[in-house]
């Protein structure tokens, strides 16, 4: 149902803070389109793995991604992710892709290509919620609202473990280590590192449930209506 919001909500933050689930719910509540930019970097990673290329070989990665057709949907209630016409929506969430995605997404030409595509998708919508790592800083520096989601590392690891059905202490420890590694990789890369935009509202979800975060972001988005921003 449309609530009168027009413009762009940029939702950034590290893994397991609730970006995807919150962004989808906010988009539904606002009657807005939804773009998961992480799914695009994950799809690019599928192309790299299928080509048998080392994800750390930036030149080879750039060539594979330049030639791949990556398509994502922008509806909040469905997940469409394709590489060269093949549905990869399930595969992109697998461990192999998760391990390799930060290296692929650190390659500048990969970012340029996907950022161009993201801006084109966004410009087709009157209202859109876009989630990722560099939306407020690079992709949409003039977004109507920028939110940076954070949560304590333990909470993030627990949430991700529950989502993936991991239960043993060893599995959870491995997952927490993987999150740390990816945070470090994403925050320290030269091109578009993960960080809050200066004008982002930081929302800490450690002690908020998902609905609490959704309410807060919707409230912030609606406060921009008629404010001339
Ligand atoms: N505030 C919250 N409290 C508890 N669990 C949450 C919260 N927000 C999201 N989750 C759950 O945590 C998991 C990871 O959320 P997700 O949206 O995939 O995060 P991200 O996109 O930031 O990696 C999901 O199972 C989701 O339902
Ligand atoms: N705008 C974005 C979105 C994702 N990414 C990269 O893609 C990876 C996967 O993003 P994601 O949003 O699917 O990750 P999760 O938070 O769901 O684990 C991140 O770890 C980043 O390396 C990026 O570089 N820039």
UniProtKB/TrEMBL annotation:
EC class of the enzyme, as a word: transferase
Positions with a binding annotation for ATP: 13-21
GO molecular function: ATP binding; CMP kinase activity; dCMP kinase activity
The keyword Transmembrane helix appears for this protein: no
GO biological process entries: nucleobase-containing small molecule interconversion; pyrimidine nucleotide metabolic process
Keyword entries, A-Z: ATP-binding, Cytoplasm, Kinase, Nucleotide-binding, Transferase
Protein's UniProt keywords contain ATP-binding: yes
The protein's Enzyme Commission number: 2.7.4.25
This protein's GO CC annotations: cytosol
Catalysed transformations (reactions): CMP + ATP = CDP + ADP; dCMP + ATP = dCDP + ADP
Localisation: Cytoplasm
Domain called Cytidylate kinase: residue spans: 9-221
Family: Belongs to the cytidylate kinase family. Type 1 subfamily.
Record protein name field: Cytidylate kinase
Source species: Geodermatophilus africanus
